[in-house]
Design brief:
The complex is a heterodimer of chains A (608) and B (343). With 608 residues, chain A is α+β, with helices and mostly antiparallel strands. Chain A is 51% helix and 23% strand. Chain B is built from 13 helices and six strands. The chains are: A alpha+beta (608), B alpha+beta (343).
């Protein structure tokens, strides 16, 4: 009665073999590598690039430990970090700016394992060191920006349609368009409604007061907020790529939060600086009317104007009066590079996209002889970088800004302009930095406590239950293998709480085997034959095992649903561990028991 | 057969019912009292703030650390600044409160710079630090850690995150309770469900009471431990309940009273209870002693939870079951249904 059909043994063997294969990569460790990928999605990393890299490395007599081309990226392995660092600069130089070259760690597991899809688990930041940021998008600022943009669009539309209007002004959550009479009111309404379908336009007529009140409908507001988060995420991607971090994680969390994880990054100040900066470029016209300027300097800025500071050179910060209307923003920039201008002072060369180029030509055409301000807006504060006089129409979309900046400034500004602007500023609401040595210590400590705890349980089980204790220990070990392989297959991220969950799950999983073994003893005490005792023990214990595991699973699921961060890592492992423990403690251990006892003619006693 | 626990006769657990319920009530009330008078020492994950761990090349001078940070006048109350050793004499944990207006993550940089100045940072260390921050270099990193003051971990949590965590923690607790009650009510009966959850909520409150009394830090991982313990001790009660149900159905138990049946169920599962908990506890102790400071309170919460879990499932859940008036008929509904079906 204690024999499994052949297929059940086969299932056990296959599961164990597959699980072992998927567990193994975790033990091979990692070696330093350099990863090459395209700086933009249009750039391919192919055989030609690989040949170029090989050539460059050979020219410098740098030995590689293997090249790997997959998923449009090239990974080159090296013996140690010193070679890796040298190689990185060599490769970067050989490939130029179109490729991003980052330091990376590659698993040392044999190639056939990777081919089978067996990869090691990702290690969380608490285990490998790095920075974690939780950023919250400032939605109020995103809405402000959206209103500003809409107001600009409406002004342009009305100008185009030659509708004379008084002003377009923000009032709370609405825009108000002031008009002269009933006739223009109607014309304006028609023009706006026709072009902007997502806007709700209401008329307000009083004595000699004609107004249009424009509101955004709720879907539009939701869309704007969603887009703000999306744009910020893609901008962050660009910026992090520029930092050269390998395998960064940038994800949305909830409605308005973004998680950024940069493994291996040590310099948090630089990372924070680049991630948090909201620099964008605005082109606006300068008002050079001295009367208005004096008035503004006296603290009475005329409506529709703004007083901005000029980037100071040699300590003199000039004030410049500029129009609030924005002619062109950083959104129309297609590329930006740091360089030098004709006078050999640091400059940023900007290339505009076709839309930007045509706007720029129009603006320069209309305003010859006036001054135009290039304004770098950061954290809601604008600073005029340069304000040259427009000598003539400028076509072609090539713009250069230079003024009071150092080479480093120019580089940073170019990076920020190239990576795109944030749709709205973000605040860091959570930050975690873990040094690499602390991470290593955490792995060691977690590993040791699991190992010694396991050993203690194994020793006790073997002494107390003898052969059945040995089988229970085998079941527990296979549980560990199943759990680790499952986590590796899912490519889960292992954290310290995750390791704690593995340990705890093992400590709890032994319960099922204790239940079974105790039950078998009891059946023997009740006078059953050894074979009947095994069957009775497993059958009786099953209902209890199921009940107790399900209650534990309920707690695990609750943690999974409501947990975030550390708790979630714990919960995933805990829940999976409960499932694997049922399989190994009942099915696998029974299989071994059957093999040991099921085929004997006469079993006098059980070693339990 | 090697046995540690073999009981010849059933132990009359139920006759101690009054005593054990009184003990439970007293410990429970004490825990509630501590929770009210000495609120939990929530970690910065809940309260917001900055925590940094630094390692000195020599034994740290805690007074100096404290004064150099207080000198910065970052704002907030001075008593909210915590400086304490972390495992070794060289490791220091510094906790700074969030200050309104300056919720920026820059506080940690300022504090660390102050510590560097106070520790007379050498030129060599400065060089090493800037080398290491520019690129990963293991050799230099090792030298830096051996010779200089280093920042090993920084955590900053803004004020808005904490409130959410508390809310989610409570929701998780509620979901666990409701889920378990529903499952046990279906699988057994409502009396079982109610006594199991009451007994185990009492464990949770006692763990929290310990954390309040000793002012141990209550972090997210501790919360995870508490919820895991809740599931684990309910599982303990379930094993006993399973036996009770089985006994009710067994022919040989026909003539026994309900409390005798419960006594028998507890006695027969006793050995398993102690071995299982002993095994789990071995694992937890390994984490407590070898897991380092990050797992310390996690393991501590589990230890208390496991010990009180045994006690409450045996000596609280079962008397409660008796108190709610469980009878043989509650457990054998199939027979009852048949009787009703036949007129």
């Amino acid at each position: 009665m204690n024999r499994y059909p052949i297929w059940k043994y086969l299932v056990i063997v296959v599961c164990l073999v597959v699980a072992s294969i998927f567990t193994l990569p975790n033990f091979f460790g990692e070696s330093p590598a350099v990863q090459v990928s395209g700086a933009r999605s249009t750039i391919n990393v192919d055989q030609a690039v690989m040949a170029k890299v090989e050539q460059a490395l050979a020219a410098q007599k740098i030995q590689t430990a293997g090249l790997l081309l997959e998923n449009n990226s090239l990974k080159v392995r090296f013996k140690d970090t010193e070679v890796q660092l040298h190689a990185k600069s060599v490769i970067q130089e050989a490939l130029g700016e179109n490729y991003s070259v980052a330091l990376n760690l590659l698993s040392d597991s044999p190639a056939w394992m990777s081919k089978l899809g067996a990869h090691p688990m990702f290690l969380g930041l608490d285990l490998r060191g790095g920075v974690h940021f939780l950023l919250e998008v400032d939605m109020k600022a995103a809405m402000d920006k959206a209103f500003e943009r809409t107001a600009g669009d409406i002004r342009r539309e009305l100008k185009d349609k030659k509708v004379r209007y008084g002003s377009v002004r923000r009032n709370g959550q609405t825009l108000e368009v002031q008009l002269r009479d009933a006739e223009t009111l109607l014309a304006a309404k028609r023009a706006i409604e026709k072009t902007f379908t997502s806007l709700k336009v209401d008329e307000r007529r009083g004595d000699n007061d004609y107004k249009l009140v424009i509101t955004l409908n709720p879907e539009e507001i939701r869309r704007i907020q969603g887009d703000a988060v999306k744009q910020n995420i893609s901008t962050l991607h660009n910026r992090v790529n520029e930092l050269g971090v390998s395998e960064p994680t940038i994800q949305q969390q909830g409605a308005e939060r973004i998680v950024v994880e940069l493994p291996g990054v040590q310099d948090t100040t630089k990372a924070k600086d680049i991630i948090g900066r909201t620099a964008t470029l605005e082109v606006r016209l300068v008002e050079d009317d001295q009367g208005k300027l004096q008035e503004a300097l006296a603290g009475n800025v005329p409506a529709g104007y703004e007083l901005l500071e000029e980037a100071e050179e040699r300590g003199r910060g000039n004030k410049i009066l500029v129009k609030k209307e924005v002619e062109l923003t950083g959104e129309n920039i297609s590329d930006a590079q740091a360089g030098f201008d004709d006078h050999n002072s640091p400059a940023v060369h900007i290339r505009l996209d076709s839309n930007g180029a045509s706007i720029f030509r129009q603006v320069t055409h209309d305003n010859i002889g006036r001054r135009m301000a290039m304004i770098l807006v950061e954290k809601g504060k604008g600073q005029v970088v340069t304000a040259p006089v427009i000598r003539g129409e400028i076509g072609g979309g090539q713009v250069q800004i230079s003024g009071a900046m150092t080479t480093a400034d120019a580089k940073d500004v170019a990076l920020l302009l190239r990576a795109g602007a944030l749709a709205a500023p973000m605040n860091i609401i959570e930050e975690r930095t873990v040094g690499p040595s602390l991470g290593k210590e955490n792995i060691e400590k977690g590993f040791h406590s699991t190992m010694y705890g396991f050993a203690a349980i194994a020793v006790f089980m073997v002494i107390y239950y003898r052969v059945f204790g040995l089988i229970s220990t085998f079941a527990l070990a296979s549980n560990l293998v199943f759990l680790v392989s499952l986590l590796s297959m899912l490519q889960a991220t292992l954290t310290l709480p995750g390791i704690a969950a593995i340990a705890l799950t093992l400590g709890m999983a032994i319960d099922s085997n204790v239940l079974i073994n105790e039950r078998i003893r009891e059946e023997i005490r009740n006078g059953m034959s050894p074979q009947a005792a095994i069957k009775g023990g497993y059958d009786h214990a099953w209902a209890t095992i199921l009940d107790s595991n399900i209650t534990t699973l309920i707690a695990g699921l609750a943690l999974l649903i409501f947990g975030s961060g550390a708790v979630r890592g714990f919960a995933v492992v805990h829940c999976l561990g409960i499932l694997t423990s049922m399989f190994s403690a009942v099915f696998v251990s029974r299989g071994v028991v059957n093999l040991v006892y099921g085929y004997r003619r006469r079993v006098q006693t059980l070693a339990v | 057969m090697f046995e540690i626990f073999h009981f010849k006769r059933d132990i009359p657990f139920m006759s101690y019912g009054k005593l054990t319920t009184t003990i439970s009530l007293v410990t429970f009330l004490l825990s509630v009292f501590f929770l009210i008078t000495r609120p939990l020492n929530f970690s910065i994950e809940f309260t917001g703030g900055t925590v940094m761990e630094v390692r000195y090349p020599q034994a740290a001078n805690f007074e100096l650390v404290r004064t150099s940070i207080e000198k910065l006048e970052l704002g907030g109350k001075k008593r909210d600044i915590i400086v304490q050793p972390l495992g070794t004499a060289r490791d220091v944990l510094i906790r700074l409160p969030n200050v309104e207006g300056t919720s920026s993550a820059k506080i940690s940089d300022q504090a660390f710079n102050a510590l560097l100045v106070a520790n007379n940072d050498t030129q060599e260390c400065k060089q090493l630090r800037s080398d290491v921050s520019a690129k990963t270099d293991e050799v230099k990193h090792k030298a830096l850690e051996d010779k200089c003051l280093v920042q090993r971990k920084v955590e900053f949590v803004g004020p808005s995150v904490g409130a959410e965590l508390v809310e989610h923690g409570l929701l998780a607790l509620l979901l666990v309770c409701v889920g378990i009650i529903i499952y046990l009510a279906i699988r057994f009966e409502w009396r079982f469900a109610l006594s199991a959850i009451l007994a185990n909520m009492h464990d949770v409150v006692i763990i929290l009471g310990f954390f309040a009394f000793f002012q141990w830090e209550f972090s997210l991982t501790v919360l995870a431990a508490v919820l895991a313990v809740l599931g684990y001790s309910v599982n303990e009660s379930v094993v006993v309940f399973d036996r009770i149900r089985e006994n009710f159905r067994k022919g040989s138990m026909r003539g026994r009273t309900v409390s005798e049946i419960i006594d028998n169920a507890i006695t027969t599962t006793m050995s398993r209870t102690i071995i299982t908990h002993g095994s789990t506890e071995m694992m937890v102790l390994a984490m407590l002693f070898l897991g380092g400071p990050s797992l310390h309170y996690f393991a501590l919460a589990l230890t208390i939870g496991i010990l009180f879990g045994i006690y409450s499932s045996v000596l609280v859940a079962s008397p409660l079951l008796l108190l709610f008036g469980v009878t043989r008929e509650n457990m054998i509904p199939t027979v009852k249904a048949k009787e009703e079906a036949v007129p």
